[in-house]
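Side project, low priority. Logging it here so it doesn't get lost.
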Amino acid sequence: MENVHVTAEKQTRREFMKKTGITVASATLSASSLAQNTARTGIKLGFDNFSIRAFGWKASQLIDYAIAQKVDVLLMSDLDVYESFDEKYLKSLKAKADAGGLELHVGTGSINPGSRTFDKKRWQSGEEHILQTIKVAKLLGSPVARCYQGNADDRKGPGGIEGRIAEMVKVCKNVRSQAVDAGVKIAIENHAGDMQAWELATLIEDAGKDFVGATLDSGNATWTLEDPMENLKILGKYAVTTGMRDSAVWENADGAIARWTAMGEGVVNWNAYVKEFKTLAPNCAFVLEIISEFQKPLPYYRDEFWPPYAKIRPREFAKYVQMARQGKERPAYVMPKGEAGKPELQAYQKSELEKSLKYCKEVLGIGLKR
């Protein structure tokens, strides 16, 4: 994960829950008090395998787990989960998912050679990278090929984020015919602070919204000085898949801190968000990408912070500042180190995802399966 800042003293899970003000009872969500009369939204529920990346599971294991969790969609957001790109193997994965009533979404990383995040050792071009992703998506029956431009550091390079957007538009246009023929939409994420919603919307319109859409990420919005609701209002109509999580945002002396959380433990009014989501993106799945380990400082009271954000729109920034002023500080999570700490990290990621799935089903009424 790029550009993350994690600082705190080591603490037990019980201490962590106590400091955040979250009781065990509220975190586990009593089924008797929340689930009985929850109205169903008709929105598909899923998760991104990045939520539980510490397990290192391959596609078949991820499919088994997703079916066990009774979700509708599994987004496998990197190509390394596949043991090969062999057609017979990929079709066997689709058959397994189909048998479990699971829709697969396919994804990958940066497709922009101009980004610092692009893997130049593995891919000769952005076109090669996204075409391989589209090929996998078609074989797995995925309607989308999720990808991204880069991260916040790309705002600081030559030409700024506008230059990176132009590069992405070019890559997308160069593969338009293959994407259309495959019936797969290129789904670009607002990723790790690279683009605000209006910037991604510009990219999609310039490339062609007939074959390019958005991977709407509510958590990444808070890393780019956006209120997630404002982000949704702009990007919702372009969304073809999603990466959803809650966020805690609070002011400090330099500006604000944004920390990702499990669903229901941050600042987002999810009942209002889901209502707006259903209106703007009625056919889009609600895919959780829970990443509760990281937080990011946004020192917008410092002059040196602003050059990469010179075109930030004042009204939307004002909404962000208002949100931060209403937020409360949360203790950071300390990442366990090395192989010895891996079981702890696995347990933490799994717990954060599963209680978020439970919240979506029982509180928000998301998901087609009981």
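Brief comment: The chain has one domain: 13-362.
Revisit when time allows.
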